[in-house]
């Protein structure tokens, strides 16, 4: 584990990855190639029913500066420039989507042994300002995540989170949607040798008085093959198997079934990621 508490997005990340990452019911492929000059080109395609979405991302690294340029099927262009370690612990990120020039944004991330701060501001006349901060250590951390619309003078987002971490257990508590949703998550490493872990997330929405409970697990069948499964209190059961058939090249098959309506057709997803 690192020395500091990380950023606000790290609170509950382990359980979220266990419960939601790599699950999908669509068809997706990703191919990454590298030029002789070190430029990385990643082509992605996603088939959602009859809709096909694709994009091409070009990444160039020069010392501590990384430039990403992504073009999608709607001819939108997203440019991102990241300057890492502009000062000790500081990362600067500039992004802009063309033709939507109002999307230009500047973001600063600062990591310290006892704090993690992230702030971003839109480069417009009346920008939305985002701020998140975490105080603590790699064991206990407390943070908040805020967004403020300078045009309307309204706080559009207000979240808070708390996390506790030890060698094989991570728990977190988040208050989201301006206090309307309370989530508690749990992640436990059962066996480091086989990457076996279990996790759970419980969310209560105060406005609807509805609870959502999701539990899941993962296990490494061999050094190259991992299986995962999850189920929620609405009867949705999902499983996947992921195989790394060559370094960093992954093939994933996912399936989802509604156990409360088994007459409905099960959903299946495929994902293929190729890297040289």
TrEMBL record:
InterPro entries: Porin_dom_sf, Porin_Euk, Porin_Euk/Tom40. GO terms for molecular function: porin activity; voltage-gated monoatomic anion channel activity. GO terms for cellular component: mitochondrial outer membrane; pore complex. Keywords: Ion transport, Membrane, Porin, Transmembrane, Transmembrane beta strand, Transport. It is found in: Membrane. It comes from the Eukaryota. PROSITE patterns: EUKARYOTIC_PORIN (PS00558). Coiled coil: none annotated. Belongs to the eukaryotic mitochondrial porin (TC 1.B.8.1) family. Forms a channel through the cell membrane that allows diffusion of small hydrophilic molecules. The channel adopts an open conformation at low or zero membrane potential and a closed conformation at potentials above 30-40 mV. The open state has a weak anion selectivity whereas the closed state is cation-selective. This is Voltage-dependent anion-selective channel protein. It comes from Anisodus acutangulus. The lineage of its organism: Eukaryota, Viridiplantae, Streptophyta, Embryophyta, Tracheophyta.
């Amino acid at each position: 584990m690192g020395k500091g508490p990380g950023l606000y997005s790290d609170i509950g990340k382990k359980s979220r990855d266990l419960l939601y990452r790599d699950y999908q019911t669509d068809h997706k492929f990703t191919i990454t190639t590298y030029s002789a000059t070190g430029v990385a080109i990643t082509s992605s395609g996603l088939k959602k029913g009859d809709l096909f979405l694709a994009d091409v991302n070009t990444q160039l690294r020069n010392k501590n500066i990384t430039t990403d340029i992504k073009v999608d099927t709607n001819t939108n262009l997203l440019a991102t420039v990241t300057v890492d370690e502009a000062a000790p612990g500081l990362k600067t990120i500039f992004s802009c989507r063309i033709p939507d020039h109002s999307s230009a944004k500047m973001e600063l991330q600062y990591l310290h042994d006892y704090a993690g701060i992230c702030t971003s501001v839109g480069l417009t006349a009346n920008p939305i300002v985002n701020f998140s901060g975490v105080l603590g250590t790699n064991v206990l951390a407390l943070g908040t995540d805020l967004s403020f619309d300078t045009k309307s003078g309204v706080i559009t987002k207000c979240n808070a989170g708390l996390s506790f971490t030890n060698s094989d257990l991570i728990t977190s508590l988040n208050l989201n949607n301006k206090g309307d949703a309370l989530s508690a998550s749990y992640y436990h490493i059962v066996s480091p040798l086989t990457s076996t872990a279990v996790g759970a997330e419980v969310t209560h929405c105060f406005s609807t008085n509805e609870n959502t409970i999701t539990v899941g697990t993962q296990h490494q069948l061999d050094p190259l093959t991992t299986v995962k499964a999850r189920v929620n209190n609405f009867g949705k059961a999902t499983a996947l198997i992921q195989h790394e058939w060559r370094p960093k090249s992954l093939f994933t098959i996912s399936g989802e079934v509604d156990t409360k309506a088994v007459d409905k057709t099960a959903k299946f997803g495929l994902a293929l990621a190729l890297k040289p």
